[in-house]
Every structure is written in structure tokens, then in C-alpha cells.
Amino acid sequence: MPVDNRVINPALAQQLFRKSEMLKRKRAGDPAAIESFPRIVKTLTGLWRYSEGKKYLEELILVEGGKRRAGFPIEVQDELMFLYQMLLDQHRILNLRGQKITANRPPGTKFTMGNKE
Predict the structure, then answer these.
(1) Rounded CA gap, 17 and 36, in Å?
(2) Cα gap 82→85, rounded to integer Å
(3) Tens-place pLDDT, residues 19-69
(4) Which of 54, 80, 98, 109 is the most buried if burial means most Cβ atoms within 10 Å?
């Protein structure tokens, strides 16, 4: 679709085009970037309904003082931030409804997220 530069900023038009192409690829079945880290997906899926899910995402996103980590590709970082925001929104919605996120670790999990238990 040709873009009329008199109507839309060319930089904005280019950005919108790239975003639409990315969405088309996702709809075509390309896996999400985070799916290349199956252990993270499995752990996050298991912890999602628990308060430790938030802690786990924070630990993945933030690097605490002195720790050295290789980091994630930018696409994975974007998806982790999106998931973190979605989880915070879910917490707010449940809180407004008078419901709470379960504070205890799910049964059978061994992941301690640095806790001294």
C-alpha cells in the first residue's frame, strides 16, 4: 500500500509498516522469542498464579548489584517486560475484585528464586 507522505510523517509510516510486517509474521506462526528459552517458559507458567511469579520476572529483568549475566536478546526483553506488565495488571484487577494472588509457592516446585529456604 503506497503511503502519501503529505498525510503522514514518513518516519512514522515506516515504523507502522515494520510493526504490521512483524504482526503478519507472528500470525503466520512464528514462535515468540521467549519460546527459545523453554525452562523460563515452563517456570513462569508454573508460577504465574502465585506471588513468586512476579519475583521471578523481576529477577529475570533486573540485574542486581555485582551479578554478571549475559542478558537476553532485545525481543526476549520486550516480551519479558510485556509479561511483567500483564502480571501487574492482573494483580491490580484481582485486588479490585477483592481477590488475592496466592502467596505460597506452588506444590512440588523446587525453584527458590534466591530465598534461603
Answers:
(1) 26
(2) 5
(3) 777 777 766 666 678 888 889 999 988 888 788 888 889 888 887 666 777
(4) 80
Q: Which three cell numbers stand for residue 79?
A: 516480551
Contact between 61 and 84 under an 8 Å Cβ cutoff? The reply is yes
State how far the Cα of 52 lies from the Cα of 80, in Å rounded to an integer. 15
DSSP-assigned letter for residue 15: H
Domain extent listing, the chain = 1-30, 32-117
Q: 58 with 91: CB under 8 angstroms?
A: no
- Can you read off the three cell numbers belonging to residue 111? 525453584
Neighbouring residues of 5: CB distance < 8 A, sequence distance ≥ 6: 13
d(CA 28, CA 70) in angstroms, rounded, equals 30
Q: What distance separates the 2 farthest-apart alpha carbons in the chain?
A: 63
